[in-house]
Amino acid sequence: MGKYIVKRLLSLIPVLIGVSLIVFFLVRLIPGTALQMYMGTQVEATPAQLEELKRLFGEDRPIPVLYFEWMGNLLKGDFGHSLRTGRPVLPDILSRLPISLELTIYSLLLALIIGIPLGVLSSLRQNTTGDFINRIIGLIGLSLPQFWLAALLVIGFSHTQGWIPMGNYVPITKAPLVNLKMFFLPSLAIGFGFAAVVMRYTRNSMLEVMQADYVRTAKAKGLPYRKVIMIHALKNAILPVITVTGFNAGYLLGGSIVIEEVFALPGMGRLALYAINQRDYPVLQAIILVIATLFVLVNLVTDLLYAWADPRIRLDEQR
Amino acid sequence: MKKPRILKNGIAVAGLILIFLYVMISIVSIFYLPFDPTAMDAKAILQAPSLSSGHLFGTDEFGRDVLSRIMKGTSVSFIISVSATAFGAVVGIFMGVWAGYLGGRIDNIIMRIADILFSFPSLLLAIFIMAILGEHTYNVVLAIGIVYIPQFARISRGSIIALKSNEYIRAAKSNGAGRSYILAHHLLPNITAPLIVQISLSLSTAILLESALSFLGLGIQPPNPSWGNMLSSARKVMLFAPWTAIYPGLAIVLLVLGFNLLGDGLRDILDPRLRNVR
Question: Shortest CA distance to B81 belongs to which of B133, B135, B141, B137?
């Protein structure tokens, strides 16, 4: 297992370098230089000041050199400065990261709490009306745009106190219950579609496992039905569900970008949209890098969990 | 005449019916719309849906007819979703097929690029590309298409690798068939099943992505109607005029549902492993 972990960690390096290359060079494709954007809001500069600004914005050096400077700074924890506010980017991102992460984790939990029991139920009552209704609801869940569900929730709950977090965000560390209540609807809007995915995977996986010999053996030796389902079937059926969950955490993180906007939650998504509208590219560049890195790390953890749970995977890789 | 297998699958048929309805609506909208979808009417601002006024789905905050705007938005959604999927599929399949067939260094390079593109959550990647390219309909197609490239590349590469060691491929090679000939005549026709399913699912996510981009103000620009930007402008008024938000969203859900039903049905039909499970 140790060897496998090291191997996977090493394979992360080229991917992260690739991500940083894409982020860095794509931002430079934007028409107009950062300096021009900055100057757009400023008064005329003397030639000497212009030289100084050019040096500051790196316009006197070739782009590959700038990339290595940028990477060097990143490794030192310097993510650059906002073109609009002049403030360093990293503290702004770090203060907003908890909101987006909480939304992601909360919605993930909701999706699992809704999806797994429904999937199990559906599989146990395969081809009944209940199963059919479940599947249709699942398909509708997959087809709902998250932001539309969010809008419907806002309309539906607009008269109830404390459920809609309109501009009065409270961190979980200050008032956990108020915070959890406030984050419930946004997380539901993000997680509902994913609950449908979890439900479908649980159902299919359970159906497969229920046909396995060891489940038949367990039934034949007279174990209580509940025990067969919970211990023998579900425990094995849950494995693919975990994988899907891990690989979709990024999709939930992406969803939080839109949902933060609907519920006016000051997370990374809102910061990203603000950066796009203000053409504040150092901020945008840093956010995308942070989210992509998180995404890659979550995928890695999922891979490792899976390999830990199923030894066949890591044996396969070593071959 | 034998009934095609797809028509025996209830789920796929339900999907086809929904999609067909939308195709009809978008054809009708070329020739007929109840009102001009961009004409503002100061006397008819935020009217509730009613038969007598002719505004079946009500009007928005500029007095524009919601139904006409939804109808007009149908073709926008279709065009974007079909062209983005086509772009992603063509480029992705091309890359994946050659990577899988040639193997070695080319395979490595192509798949690492796909891995890197995969490291971005799809909506984030689309948002990023839109921020760089600027808000334009073509760019929406490009942004969503790029998101799809790695997905199609992976699927087609996997299928090609599974196929290429088959006897009949070796036979074709020993008969002197060239690479391109083998790819076009022996390999591609045999990997269509997983690709068809992926295409129908991609069509559905493209609609969701486009609407999310437009909702955030990065996609189709007003006054041109798209379901996403209708929902975006509805946000300001939806608490007292919920119809401005409900109907465009419903339009999205039903079309996406149509593609998802079709995709699910196709998977049932084309994937023999699942046929017994269900």
Answer: B141
> Can you read off the two tokens belonging to residue B198?
């992926």
Q: A159 pLDDT exceeds 80?
A: no
Rounded-to-integer distance, Cα B211 and Cα A53, Å:
40
Helix (H) / strand (E) containing A307: helix A281-309
Judge whether residue B277 has pLDDT over 70: no
Cα gap A306→A241, rounded to integer Å: 10
Alpha-carbon distance of B35 to A105, in angstroms, equals 45
Q: Which helix (H) or strand (E) holds A220?
A: helix A213-220
**What whole-number distance in Å separates Cα of residue A253 and Cα of residue A265?**
14
3-state DSSP call for residue A88?
A: strand
Q: What does the alpha-carbon distance between residue A285 and residue B215 come to, in Å, rounded to a whole number?
A: 22
**Nearest CB to A143; choose among B128, B246, B253:** B253
pLDDT tens for residues B113-165? 888 888 888 888 898 899 888 888 899 999 999 999 999 999 999 888 888 88
Mean residue pLDDT of chain A comes to 83
Residue type at A230 in one-letter notation? M
Instruction: Give long-range contacts, CB 8 A cutoff, 24+ apart: B65-68.
Output: B65/B33, B65/B34, B65/B35, B65/B36, B65/B37, B66/B230, B66/B243, B66/B244, B66/B247, B66/B248, B67/B34, B67/B35, B67/B247, B68/B33, B68/B34, B68/B35, B68/B36, B68/B37
What is the reported pTM? 0.88
Q: Which of A109-113, A238-242, A263-267, A310-314 is the least confident region?
A: A310-314
pLDDT by residue (tens digit) across A116-127? 999 998 888 888
Q: Is the dihedral angle over the CA atoms A193, A199, A201, A204 positive or is it negative?
A: negative
Which pLDDT score is estimated for B25? 94
Q: Which residue has the tokens 């609907």?
A: A262
d(CA A76, CA B242): 50
In terms of average pLDDT, the best of A93-97, A206-210, B52-56 is A93-97
Of B124, B249, B264, the CB nearest to A148: B249
Q: Are the C-beta atoms of A136 and B249 separated by less than 8 Å?
A: no
Nearest residue of B to residue A152, measured between CA atoms:
B246
CB under 8 Å to B56, separation ≥6 — which residues?
Answer: B34, B49, B50, B67
As a residue count, chain A comes to 319
**Cβ <8 Å between B131 and A284:** yes
Contact check, Cβ <8 Å, B121/A258:
no
**Cα of A222 to nearest chain B Cα, Å:** 25
Minimum distance, in Å, between the CA of residue B46 and any CA atom of chain A? 16
The answer to whether A148 contacts B252, with C-beta atoms less than 8 Å apart, is yes
**Is some CB atom of chain A closer than 8 A to the CB atom of B122?**
yes
Q: Distance between CA A209 and CA A215 in Å, rounded?
A: 7
Residue whose C-alpha is closest to residue A239's, from A201, A213, A196: A201
Q: What residues of chain B lie within 8 A of the CB of A18, using their CB?
A: 112-113, 115-116, 119
